[in-house]
Amino acid sequence: MAIDKNTVKYVAHLARIKLNEDELDLLSSQLESIIDFIDKLKELDISGVQPTSSVLAVGNVFREDKPRASLTAEESLSNAPEKKDNFFGVPKVIE
Prior knowledge:
Blueprint lengths: L4 H10 L6 H22 L30 H5 L5 E2 L2 E2 L7
Antiparallel strand pairs: 1-2
């Protein structure tokens, strides 16, 4: 797939990006190089390669989920600047 200057200009227009002629030339050549590299990667035989989500051996460390006591309503609201019954008082944001 060829990326020419007109394609870059069109996409820049859609993205509302102003590019001068030098930037158009540079960007179109860079994008063309990227597309060429991707085409080279497509030629590789990866039929024997297992799919992976990470190249690093990653293992999760899980802890046992144990229930424990939490704060009471009084303790939770002890530093609240405003409270109403057992709830935090907050300013109205919808008029």
